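Question thread 4412

I'm putting together a teaching handout and wanted feedback from people who do this every day. The idea is simple: show students a protein as raw sequence, then show them the structure tokens that encode its fold, then repeat with a second protein so they can compare. Below is the first pair exactly as I plan to print it.
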Amino acid sequence: MLCMWGESAFRDGHTINFIMEPEVFGYSRKTFILGSDVRRLASMREVFGNCIAVYQRYLYDQLTAYKMVDMVAFVDPSRIGGKGGGNGTVRAQHIRDRLLTAKPGQIFMLPYNSGAFGMFNAERKKKGRSSVIWKNLAGIPPQPSNKECGYFVMRYMRDIIEDKDLSLFATKWERRGSSQYTQEDIDQLRNEWAKFVVKTYV
């Protein structure tokens, strides 16, 4: 169904253009969804930063509903990835600028793309910039191949937010566990992505 919608909605090179609100990534920017983005998602091909950013926008609504916006925040993957994010200095500057907006104890999620996706966490305590702590979230279940990385990172961010209790963050999410993601788990986020796009931007 998603693929059929993508074929009809994006005929003749049509794109969906919209503004990403400043609350999501700390600044406002124009962005778009291409037919190729939808087809990739529909056929389980590798997804890029823009698809992940759209899902983060959906997750921001979840954070708002759960009253968690002061607990969890996002960094724009399109500004820190190896493709299109500029050189290392530019990417580092963007991360620095984003962390300067942090509230005490706030957790930032950074889906980082350098050919594959990793995920990191930063926590900024009351004493300021020197107290930022970087953590590699090793708890993401292993994926069958590099093509599933984006889907697994999106699902992992979703699971953290749906947990709602971050008091045991280190125990639950930083360490490699025995959990596995099934195709049903991935299909759930794909459906959420599609429903959100249709409801919000179409």
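The second pair follows. I'd like the answer to focus on this one:
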Amino acid sequence: MTESTLDIINDFKKSFLEIGEAVTKLRELERLTNLGEISKGASNSLKKECMENLKKYCEKFTKLENELDAVRAKTLLELESSRRKIEELGLPTDPNIEKFEAIFAKIKNAYFSMKVQIGLEAFQYICSLRADIPNKERSSHNNELCQNFLDSLAKGWLYQKEHFQKYIESLEKQVNELEKQENELNLRIRIGEITDLNIKEKIGQEIFMLQKKISDASNFINIIDSRIFDCYLILSGQGSSSSIDLKEVEMPSDLLNALDIASTIEIDGKILSIEDAYYSALFKYSLRYGFGSMAAKDRLEKDIKGLIDKGLSRSEAIASILKQGKVGK
């Protein structure tokens, strides 16, 4: 992986963290202003500064997303070319494939690290800058910023949504399999072959939990789709940024876990699944706190949470812990 490609990926992820920090500051400023802890005059001055920073971060993110998407397209073409080369020449393998797959995995991780609901809130803020300006006088630059930022955000959401839909499909397959087991079990109960109804109850509970996960995931996807559609309506002049409340939209924990499971990280030149990386980190902690000890896992989870609270994703936190080479006290 070239240094420039790695820089684009890292800068992309960093730029979205900056957007998140700016949104958090604006939220807190609104809260303190509403409580009367900050005067209107001071609030307006601070808000103007925060909004200027947010605009700058959104511009930076959009530029980097375009660069990242170009790298993604180029990598995909080179990957397919290498695969075709193997088929046409009858080669056993091509060392370039592993290299391109590693790049592609990092790009996917970068898009997965985006918190789309935070991005939509940022869009709402930058669009609010147009609220007091008549349509004919609105800055073409600000309109372009809103459009480009939303396009980049929507593109990242499509990658996440595709993965979420595959996750839902996997859950649906599990439900179908359990329903088959349930039907077979009902038949065996009717003919008296099985009398223990606890098994049936357990299967029913598993089906219920899976269906709830499917429902929660589908609802979240529909909400984000609807919010993005509403944002495009705002750009077309058919809606108002103040009419959309995005602050209560939270991703279900199962979807967060699904993104983490799909993520990969690079440690010492090796590409690891997030699950393998987690157990590697747990092994390190077990050396200090004892194998089979809950203290090792509890301490690891505490350190992961500490890094997440600083703005890292779970996969980034695990990678950071592995790269540190030392275990927290």
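Top answer:
Good format. For the second protein you could add a caption like this: Strands lie at 264-267, 270-273. The chain has ten helices and two strands.
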